[in-house]
Design goal:
Layout (H helix, E strand, L loop, with lengths): L1 H33 L1 H11 L1 E6 L6 E2 L5 E13 L6 H15 L3 H8 L6 E7 L1 H13 L6 E10 L7 H4 L11 H5 L1 H4 L4 E6 L12 E4 L6 E4 L3 H17 L6 E6 L6 E7 L13 H5 L6 H12 L2 H4 L9 H10 L12 E3 L2 E4 L2 E4 L8 E3 L1 H7 L2 H11 L1 H10 L26 H8 L8 H12 L3 E3 L4 E5 L6 E3 L4 E4 L3 H16 L13 E9 L7 E9 L6 E8 L9 H19 L15 E3 L8 H10 L3 E5 L15 E3 L5 E3 L3 E5 L1
Parallel strand pairs: 2-8, 23-26
Antiparallel strand pairs: 1-6, 2-3, 3-4, 3-5, 6-7, 8-16, 9-10, 9-21, 11-14, 12-13, 15-18, 16-17, 19-20, 20-21, 22-25, 24-26
């Protein structure tokens, strides 16, 4: 009996031993075959110190080689807590807190952690890290503290072209503008320093380090000219401040022949070296009281490039598109046929009466040229009806208004139009003279560039060249011509009419002495029933050799100068053209082709009678246009002028228009 029990126990023990062995084999197999790769990675992480080396981001240059963004060498301090003895942890923490002006408790917490590596401070100047090196030497601290090379992005011009360039975050990643769009090209490839340790994370003597160098990012050459950009930003800021533009403004200048953006400015700008510092004094004073959500909303608004991301009603500048379509479709063949059109002050479409802006004094008989010079709404409404909805939408598509331009910047918007099948006669009428739809400033300047260059729709661009960081090889980025949208004949006719708009029409304040400038003014509502306006002027220089197309857009000017495009935006374009055309070394037009006129300072005609104002304006060689309510008779000796555009003190050429309001 005892023998049987002994055999049973032995059998049971063998079975248990076999079962345990089987489980061990299964477990070993699971660890080796299923978890092997993961555990190997964990072992590597535990037994090695892996520190990253950030590459230098590529430099960003303007078209003349001026540096717009560059990476400088700085250093980052990390610690290996397991390699700092307990008796030194407090001393090390105190020293680094003092040297780098950090919170002692925060540093001590990192130094005391049970981890292989902790970052103490990033992007430090070498002067500071040298202080730490001296302290380490004096205190015989040789392990546990790492000082590694790092890079820091620097923008030498602070605010210049801020909405174009963008900025980077603490991890060297592009967060806006060119920095974000071309991040993969600019950022380069990280390097690393690897050091072998034991299982507890302590360094193994004489093991040494494995150093894998970083590869710097490639550099970019932009189409932007820093000199033109600074001129544009200067006059945009002055215009927004002087005209009290509550919602800022934008200016885009482009070479119409290749799509090169020469300047693109949004006001207000911000400092690229301090991108998280708000640019509004009022907001800055209340910043600490705002919620995180409100802070983020305001920062996003500050970084927003309104020239490509925000839409607006173009107003009468869009009459250039209607004119082009009408000429291309042969609805009009002779732009100087007087009496081809007639303005009676209003036009009725599908039972809706739409007024001309000068309804109180109708323009009467007009040619297409004089209609554009006068910016006469009824004429362009009539043209829109003759073109028809389907054909008009074909031209909207050809001119690029129904899609994004494709510029190499993030965050671009596209035009907002009613769907074609929802457009009726009244909607077509308003589209024909530039209202009740929205486009971006960039779309408008791109479309007019096609008129200026002979009819080709060219994709706007900001990068013209990429420079390899290792070889220095330069790769050109070729311009993109999308399609031919109008004939050269149509292009020349529209340019000729634009020249008349500036020489004799509503755009007189856009003249530049010695140069033939073509242009068109625009005034539109910023939304429906908002009581806000958008003032704009688009100009071409020169009409005889188009090299620059520029759009000035001012949002809700509330100053004494009013909100008309001819009085508020056109003078800004004139000031900018006066500086950049000689800089670009564009030849002046022949003296017989362009009348040389004297510069005149706009007088203050407010609070005096119309009769007195007329005499003052006439003596200065200027023209006075007075807004008089419909069917109202006035006594010019008694009626006082309340407001004027442009404001007093602005420099204009003789023959320019001054608008007075009673």
């Amino acid at each position: 009996m005892a023998g049987i029990n002994r055999k049973r126990r032995m059998r049971n023990m063998l079975f248990i031993a076999f079962l345990i062995l089987t489980l061990l084999i299964v477990r070993i197999g699971w660890i080796q075959l299923v978890q092997g790769e993961e555990l190997q990675t964990l072992a590597y992480q535990q037994q090695s110190l892996d520190r990253k080396i950030n590459p230098k981001r590529g430099t960003i240059y303007d078209c003349n080689g001026n540096v717009l963004a560059v990476s400088s060498t700085v250093e980052t301090v990390t610690v290996n807590p397991t390699n700092i003895s307990n008796e030194n942890k407090d001393k090390v923490s105190q020293a680094m807190a003092n040297i780098f002006n950090l919170d002692y408790e925060t540093v001590l917490k990192k130094v005391s952690k049970r981890s292989s590596i902790e970052t103490i401070a990033r992007k430090l100047d070498k002067e500071k890290t040298d202080e730490l090196r001296v302290w380490m030497q004096e205190n015989n601290i040789t392990t546990g503290i790492n000082i590694d090379e790092d890079t820091k992005r620097y923008y030498p011009n602070n605010n210049l072209a801020s909405h174009i360039i963008g900025f980077t975050g603490s991890d060297n990643q592009g967060l806006g503008g060119i920095e974000a769009k071309y991040d993969e090209i600019l950022k380069g490839t990280q390097g690393r320093i690897t050091r072998v340790t034991d299982a507890k994370g302590k360094e193994i003597n004489n093991a040494g380090e494995n150093y894998e160098s970083a590869i710097d990012g490639d550099s970019l050459v932009l189409t932007i000219d820093a000199n033109i950009q600074s001129i544009v930003e200067k006059y945009l800021a002055e215009a927004c401040i002087d005209n009290e533009c509550t919602d800022g403004g934008t200016i885009v200048a482009i070479n119409p022949n290749n799509g090169n953006i020469l300047a693109m400015a949004t006001y207000p700008s911000y400092n690229l070296n301090e991108p998280y510092k708000i640019n509004s004094e009022e907001l800055l004073n209340n910043w600490d009281s705002l919620s995180s959500k409100d802070k983020n909303i305001n920062l996003q608004a500050m970084w927003r490039n309104k020239a490509i991301a925000d839409t607006y009603e173009p107003g009468s500048t869009f009459k250039l598109i209607t004119s082009s379509a009408a000429l291309e479709e042969k609805i009009v063949t002779d732009i100087d046929k007087e009496g081809q059109f007639s303005c009676t002050g209003a036009i009725e479409i599908a039972g809706v009466r739409i007024k001309c802006w000068r309804y109180y004094k109708p323009h009467g008989a007009e040619s297409l040229r004089t209609a554009l010079m006068n910016s006469c709404n009824p004429v362009f409404i009539g043209l829109g009806q003759k073109i028809g909805i389907e054909k008009y939408y074909d031209y909207l598509e050809k001119f690029g208004f129904l899609e994004k331009t494709g510029i190499d910047l993030p965050g671009e918007a596209k035009g907002i139009f009613l769907q074609e099948n929802k457009v009726g006669p009244v909607e077509l009428a308003t589209i024909s003279f530039g209202q009740r739809f929205e486009i971006t400033p960039l779309q408008m300047v791109t479309a007019v560039s096609a008129i200026a260059n002979g009819g080709n729709l060219v994709q706007p661009r900001l990068v013209k060249q990429i420079i390899d960081s290792e070889t220095g090889e330069k790769q050109d980025v070729e311009p993109i011509i999308k399609q031919k949208i109008i004939s050269e004949e149509t292009s020349k006719k529209v340019l000729d009419m634009m020249s008349s708009v500036v020489s004799e029409g509503t755009g007189k304040n856009g003249k530049v002495q010695g140069y033939s400038i073509g242009g068109k003014t625009g005034t539109s509502e910023d939304g429906v029933n908002t009581n806000k306006y958008v003032s704009s002027f688009i100009g071409v220089a020169t009409v005889t050799n188009p090299q620059v197309v520029m759009l000035v857009t001012l949002y809700n000017p509330t100053g004494e100068g009013g909100h008309g495009g001819g009085g508020v935006s056109a003078p800004v374009a004139s000031q900018i053209f006066s500086e950049i055309l000689p800089y670009l070394d564009l030849n002046q037009d022949k003296q017989e082709d362009i009348e040389i006129k004297e510069n005149v300072t706009v007088p203050d005609i407010r609070n005096i009678s119309i009769k007195e104002a007329k005499k003052i304006i006439k003596d200065l060689g200027l023209n006075l246009s007075i807004e008089i309510p419909e069917n109202e008779e006035i006594n010019e000796e008694e009626v006082i002028i309340k407001e004027q555009t442009p404001k007093p003190g602005i420099m204009l050429q003789s023959g320019a228009n001054i608008f007075a309001y009673i």
